[in-house]
Amino acid sequence: MHEQNPTPNPIDLVSTWLTDADDHPLHGGVTLATVGPDGRPSARIVLLRGHDERGFVFYTNYRSRKAEELQTNPQAAMVLWWRDLKQQVRIEGRVNKVSREESEVYFASRPRGHQLGAWVSKQSRVIPDRAVLNDGLTETRRRFENRDIPCPPHWGGYRLSPDMIEFWEEGEHRLHDRLRYRRQDGEWRIERLAP
Ligand SMILES: Cc1cc2nc3c(=O)[nH]c(=O)nc-3n(C[C@H](O)[C@H](O)[C@H](O)COP(=O)(O)O)c2cc1C
Known about the structure:
This protein is α+β, with helices and mostly antiparallel strands. The chain is built from five helices and nine strands.
């Protein structure tokens, strides 16, 4: 990783890192940080379900805490970490919902159990006990018996469109490599940062 001869497009570089890391997956997810209306940040793990020129996609409940935060402040940050490769990618930018069609196609590809769960769980709400979930599952199973389960209106994807991507690689003596790409006027500008 060198600023003299860098990959011009950081999204291609993320793809390379994701592909190179086939044997070293992202340990199940990426960290997603959002900000509440009071300026307080919150973070959680989500699964990265796709990425291309437009950005990085994850799926969730559109009434969850993260979704409420994104509604008032559509800026978010994502962190990808490969423990074994000693690499990190930080991504920042604006978040938009993916198209309804995209969510429906992805939802249809999910195992039936996951589809049921998306209907049952009022994600991020306080519930009195686990029985609420079990009862909800029984009822939802009955409701969709012998037919396809549609994508719930309150469930779908978001796409984080990056305007900043930073690559970090462990170096000797704690002198790590950090290359930051910032999108300005449609161009990616590259800078090296001190570790
Ligand atoms: C490995 C892992 C993967 C997860 N993937 C997702 C996901 O793709 N979408 C999601 O909504 N929550 C996912 N979660 C749960 C979230 O971390 C979080 O608990 C949930 O989205 C509610 O967050 P919120 O209340 O801040 O909205 C995952 C958790 C773990 C540990």
